[in-house]
Design brief:
- The chain is an alpha/beta fold.
- It contains five helices and eleven strands.
- The protein has helices spanning 3-12, 31-44, 58-65, 127-130, 147-154; strands at residues 48-51, 72-74, 100-104, 107-109, 114-118, 133-139, 143-144, 162-165, 170-171, 179-180, 187-193.
- Strands 1-11-6-3-2 form a five-stranded parallel β-sheet, with helices on both faces. Strands 7-4-5-8 form a four-stranded mixed β-sheet. Strands 9-10 form a two-stranded antiparallel ribbon.
- The radius of gyration is 20 Å and the shape is globular.
Length: 196
């Protein structure tokens, strides 16, 4: 049997589409409970968190955590501003110089401290992974309890790209030695807007 005849046979098969099963709601939890859980899990996976407010700006928080950062790509509308320009057609290799990426998250998941970043908020798909350090700005009111609630909140929206990010990159695959920043940023800081 030739490859072409196999492909013709596969294409000829038509099966009925079945609806996805209904996923029960597993409980949302109180807003305070979600925030406490998100922070707890974020710290467990090696991430950090801070709160923005009238007495503490994003720029102050960044300066506290990353006082020596010079090569910055910022995708938020407030200081600190980008010090590197990022071309639309930049290759991942061009991003190797990014020391600090400041990005906006659309929602956070309390059960695993994951933050959803989509293509609308991301100038380059590789940015959260090639930057040495990553800061994710997140609204305090954008937390959901679990991944079921996250997918429900994201349902029906169309993005060309999106990714959940949780904690700094780490691996202990080789000789059981923990390596931070092996496949992504060495640190991850989630900065909450509003009353957290």
């Amino acid at each position: 049997m030739s490859r072409e005849s196999i492909l013709v046979g596969v294409r000829a098969q038509h099966s009925e589409s079945a609806p996805l099963p209904a996923i029960p709601e597993f409980g949302r939890g109180a807003r305070d409970g979600l925030m406490a859980r998100f922070r707890e899990v974020l710290e467990q996976v090696g991430g950090m968190w801070a709160e923005c407010g009238p007495d503490r700006s994003l720029a102050e928080i960044i300066h506290t955590h990353y006082p020596d950062a010079e090569r910055i790509v910022s995708c938020v509308d407030e200081p600190p501003a980008s010090t590197l320009s990022l071309a639309v057609d930049a290759s991942p290799a061009d991003l190797i110089r990014v020391e600090l990426a400041i990005l906006s998250g659309r929602l956070g998941v309390a059960e695993n401290a994951a933050v959803w970043i989509d293509g609308e908020q991301l100038p380059h798909r590789a940015l959260p992974f090639v930057a040495e350090h990553c800061v994710l700005r997140l609204g305090a009111d954008s937390l959901v309890a679990d991944m079921h609630a996250a997918y429900a909140a994201l349902a029906g929206r169309k993005w060309d790209y999106g990714v959940f990010v949780s904690g700094p990159s780490k691996t202990a695959d080789i000789e059981q030695s923990l390596v931070i920043g092996a496949q992504g940023p060495r640190t991850l800081l989630v900065v909450f807007d509003g009353q957290a």
